[in-house]
Amino acid sequence: MQMRVPVAEPRSPGAYDLPDATGHFGPYGGTFVAETLQAALEELRDAYEACRTDPAFQAELAYELEHYVGRPSPVYHAKRLSDELGGAQVYLKREDLNHTGAHKVNNTMGQALVARRMGKPRVIAETGAGQHGVATATVAARYGMECVVYMGTEDVARQAQNVYRMKLLGATVVPVTSGSRTLKDALNEAMRDWVTNVANTFYIIGTVAGPHPYPMMVRDFNAIVGKECLVQMPALAGRQPDYVLACVGGGSNAMGIFHPYIPHAGVKLVGVEAGGLGISTGKHAATLSAGSPGVLHGNRTYLMQDADGQILETHSISAGLDYPGVGPEHAWLKDSGRASYVSVTDDEALAAFHALCRTEGIIPALESSHAVAHAMRLAPTLARDRIVLVNLSGRGDKDMHTVAKASGLSL
Amino acid sequence: MSRIAATFDRLRAGRRAALVPFVTAGDPSPAHLPDMLRSLVANGADVIELGVPFSDPMADGPTIQRSSERALRAGTGLAMILDAVRQYRREDDRTPIVLMGYANPIEHMGVAAFAGRAKESGIDGVLVVDYPPEESGAWAEALGAAGIAPIFLLSPTSSQARIDLVARMAKGYIYYVSLKGVTGAANIDTADVERMLARIRSRTSVPVGVGFGIRDPETARAIARFADAVVIGSRIVEEIERAEPDQAAQRAGAVLAAFRAGVDAAAVDRAGP
Ligand SMILES: Cc1ncc(COP(=O)(O)O)c(C=O)c1O
Questions:
Q1: Considering its fold, how many domains does chain B have in total?
Q2: CATH number of the structural domain spanning residue B250
Q3: In terms of residue numbers, what domain contains B164?
Q4: Residue A1 pLDDT level (bands cut at 50, 70, 90)
Q5: Catalytic pick among B49, B124, B238, B239
Q6: Fewer Cβ atoms within 10 Å of its own Cβ: the N or the C terminal residue of chain B?
Q7: Which residue of chain B has the CA closest to A295?
Q8: How large is the average pLDDT for residues A108-130?
Q9: Ligand 1: which residue has its CA nearest to atom 6?
Q10: Contacts of A195 in chain B (CB under 8 A)
């Protein structure tokens, strides 16, 4: 199917056009990395700017998204769920139907094409749940590039199936034993690889975090999600939604669907963070809801940190949300009031997971289940003619073991 | 005159390069810090770089990562380090002490509050690895107001424009990272380093030190022929890792003494003041 998606919206004076030239979203973002990486970032900024403005690059990306990834993904009216909730109509943006099962591939496809333009034969990535690692290994196989994925040993143990998928796709998975042995440490290790091998290596970051230009570039590649919705919602529902909801780990699926809606002042944007065992227990990953500003992984943003400014370990039932930072653009959207951020506990996410399976025949990723859970809280408080659009960022096949275990079963 | 400037003046007069050990504060534990400082000075340190441990040391190799983890497990924090240096200043008012670490613990204390407390403690310079010059306007101002030198890095990949930017902002000394990679990585190419130092020197009169990858007294001697300072990090930290905690200061000092001999042997080859 061919769908016409407007490329860039015309910029009017005062329109939202962040980040600025140096990668800042208000006080957030920036390029907080050691001198040893500055030249590599400069090279990447120039290469990405050339790609962004090159119609041939955009055409190649559009072709790959259609024929390889399977875009556009549909928007679906979840009628039975909506009826059960008895309030607003819930619509789902079906990123779960993409090749590899999540929105992550929108970004890895884009960055892989940039890497090819730059002539880099080797790509590296960090991964937590393994979804970004799989999406990176996939495009590396597609283009015959060497692929190395860094993954904390805690996550290697929790996500054995995705480790195997990456290996099938020809990637090397390097277990990371430093620090808390999770996603943040994998990101540190990938940065160390990059600084050492920068001549032949492209670092594909998996979310809207890291130093400039990553938060902007990853957002741009995921913005296809929101751009499609702008066209699909009027066609399907007769108008734009009242609310757009998305789960927030690093924040890439949320930025992807939020960004094209930022100029639409009547559309409320709500990010849903991982409340884990509850904010009051301290065992959660609700960075914007409960953290404070600081500097990590190359940008200034909200962080989970202790009284000495050391980064805290986080907890979530969904490994993809288990990150102590968040993309700097979300920090800015929160402070400026354009978006708001709430949290959903492990138990609420699990209940939403089961509800969507039962009412709609859709098995969502545990990450995406957080956004569904907030829709289930919100919809009953709204009239039946209101519309809530949820970014269903991924499918739940990877989460079978976790969900079964939470139900006291073992597979 | 600042302690850093006085030290480089004195060394220049004696045709010597500064020997600069790096250790992580609080490794093996905060209680060992005063003895560590004493041992390094007794064995020839001209300036001490004191690492502030951070949970996510992105620019460091495994040796210094593990060192940070040991220090954090032992309860080390930034405020505690500032207090320890303040105590130490009662017995040594001469050796410059430069803090080296990452932005977040400092931002969490607050840049202005940090600068004030660092000044009271007798800190002479601060190198924040993830504060490049373009993000350091307010930072350099706050340190400058407290009379503390903001130290910046340059690397083999730094462009001419970045060399000029650092040359404009740098105080104290410039730290040239002598290889592509993280701390503790492979050995360095002395000729490459010498060429780059000449480029940096053509833009600034601030002293230039060299570090990352200097692992033996021979290399230290080769670098000391043309650099203003030679920084020894991972090799000393390895020794601390291997030692029983109560022996760590003494063993770090013994390693440093060998580097001191190497650096002093270069004095004959150095150009005069
Ligand atoms: C399906 C899915 N949704 C969401 C996320 C969270 O990432 P982000 O916040 O960048 O969208 C992940 C991460 O692995 C994921 O796999």
A1: 1
A2: 3.20.20.70
A3: 3-270
A4: very low
A5: B49
A6: N
A7: B104
A8: 97
A9: A249
A10: 59, 180-182
